[in-house]
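Reopening this one. Same input as before:
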Amino acid sequence: MAAPQPVSWEQVQSILDRQPTQQVPFAQYVVHIGAVQGGVINLAAPGQQAANRLHPLPQPPRVLPRRISGFVDREEEQRTLGQALARRQVVDLHGPDGLGKTALISRAMHSQLPGAFPDGMVYLSARHETRQDLLQALVKHFFAADDSLHVTDNDARRLMADKRALIAVDDVNHLEEGEAEDLTQIVPNCALLIAGREQQVWSGEDVPLGGLPREQAVALFERRWGPLGDRERPLAEAICRALGDAPLAIIKTASTARSRRVPLEQVWQEVQPPAAQPDPLGQAVSMMGRHLSAEERRLLGGLVAPGAATVGVGALPAITGLTPAQVNQALPSLQAMGLVQAHSPRYSVDEGLRPYIRRYGVDEGMRQRAADYYRQQAGRLRGEGKDPDEENVINALRHYYRRQQWPQVIEIARAIEPYLV
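Same output, byte for byte:
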């Protein structure tokens, strides 16, 4: 094998000036640029590029969303999904937040018979990922690779061309226009189930999602609130009607009413839709806010203000201004109401509620405290793969950028440079 040709510093400098990511094409090689501090550059010949450095995993992946307890109805949608997926078609499931799209995906994936998809099943969410992040994650569920390997579109197409798997991509409304459609070309022999607010793919099975049938909506309310008497049932029906029979709004409203002992007559009054435009989740959040303490409301805001899916419990006092004792006292009650999920030692807010809490429960002071906290944490990002606070730190950088606070922007950029490289 011939020795690689020497690379001059002028050629390397021209590459560095282009501000590359992880791999830069150069002559007949791919240049892998490591941490800037070391100035180490490794050359990989074409035969060592991404598609050739990946090896199939020994077992087909089975990465499914968690099972949703208490799933109700959706029999027609389940039947449509099941038939289309069996034919390995593209299915576009769409509708407003809170209607149970993720629950329906979970049901469809957990209902598949063993062997229906010999190459496995994978669930992904685009809520906090770019299209390129999704491709990286998708390929690495099927192939072994180190975290520094960059997978191109062509790599993904070659690697996934013969796979007969079920791929579900949730929250595709967070992708750019046309990117969900692009995914259909990456996995041509897979059953692809995508879900988002609006229709994204025009070549597959279109499955719009609306509210539950009224009887099922009331059954869901009763499951969360408790047995309904003859006097209470008409009130529960009226509450479900006001909430557009939207599952998430019903669940959160009923749980709040039960835990805070709110009479159903009062609940009905508090969830009435605005005259202009009904907004079931907004109505539910407004009702819940009336029955939370000031500390609980601040804690919900603190979990949303940084921007990432989860926040470490240690960050919450600095972001919210609450004491650690107040944080530890409020978290269990919010968990009991189903508003907060624990991923010890991190916590998250139900994704469907995040936009409303961000709108009504996060003020400028809280945004500033979140940015200040994660600016100080920027140099501490660690670990193999993606650090859970990476997005929080990037959002802090965006916060300062939008306000043209350049010293803070430079401070964060320098602190995270080794981690990102």
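So the earlier flakiness isn't reproducible anymore. For the record, The radius of gyration is 24 Å.
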